[in-house]
TrEMBL record:
One Pfam family here: RVT_3
Entry protein name: RNase H type-1 domain-containing protein
Species whose genome carries this gene: Gossypium hirsutum (Upland cotton)
GO molecular function: nucleic acid binding; RNA-DNA hybrid ribonuclease activity
Classification via InterPro entries: RNase_H-like_dom_plant, RNase_H-like_EbsB-rel, RNaseH-like_sf, RNaseH_domain, RNaseH_sf
Segments forming domain RNase H type-1: 13-96
Amino acid sequence: MGACSRLTCQVPTAFAVEALAVIHGLRFAFELGFQSVILEGDSRLVIHKLGTSLEDFSEISALIWEVKEFSKLFEVCRCICAARLGNMAAHAMAQYGLTRREDRFWVEETPLLVVAVTDEGRRLLDPP
């Protein structure tokens, strides 16, 4: 489908990075024309904040608000928490992005490192 790696600077907390990644992912999915998306993240706190209707007063409240507003552009937008072990492809993309020092976008392809991590994950889940 698609993948992206965005270089961001001066983000104050890991929670802000997670929320910002959701915003970038939603924007990318919207630009590719997707109508339904499933957001997977390994930050339980961020996913919880996205899934609640309660007003958020944390340091990432503006980012959470932006995600919620942007998600209204989709017919379906679900948020689920994925354990870090189940999210290795995203982790590999983040590591790859740190080495490139620039924004990168892929449509119907991904870096070979991410393919290798995904294939290994499949082998672990469904051994021959």
